[in-house]
Known about the structure:
Helix content: 55-70%
Number of domains: 1
CATH topology: Hypothetical protein af1432
Strand content: under 5%
Distance between the termini: 35 Å
CATH superfamily: Hypothetical protein af1432
Amino acid sequence: MSFGMSYEAMKEELAKRLKRSRFIHSVGVSETAAFLAGRFGVEEQKARVAGLLHDCAREFRNEDMIAEAQKRKIAIGAVEQAMPLLLHAYIGAKRIREIYQVEDKDVEQAIWRHTVGGPQMTALDKIIWFADMIEPGRDYPGVENLRQLAKEASLDDMMLAGFSQSIQFVVAKGHLIHPDTVLARNELLLKKIR
């Protein structure tokens, strides 16, 4: 694990690059991730940094995401092509090294997976994904139930509820569901059945 910048320096840099509401969201995810890391025995500093920087690529406009991904040789699937905003997770995973001097595979992977999830998610991956859903600034039907689960449920039960709610929301909006989200949810369900 190598963080070339202090957490405070990362925070200052991020504040310059993101609009204020996105920055406040990022700090909220960082603090929520630190709480969840403490609860589930994950390294708090990694959770705090991954939470802070998870949306660092949101400094780019949606219409620039494909070009930014191509610049970094990130594969762009059909779902990302149709919904380029999803690419911010993958671009952000690369930006942490470029801008914030973070050289940490776990943090990079957690940021990469924070939007759609994926198979064989680590505890850190799950924490960042879930913290993004429940940070204090989030306000949507069902968020209080998810916040309650964050205090009392197992990490996998929490994630299963989160994925289920997320998929229902995306379906209701008529959007595409990323295959990695389905894989992640199915994997959790299969674990329960076995």
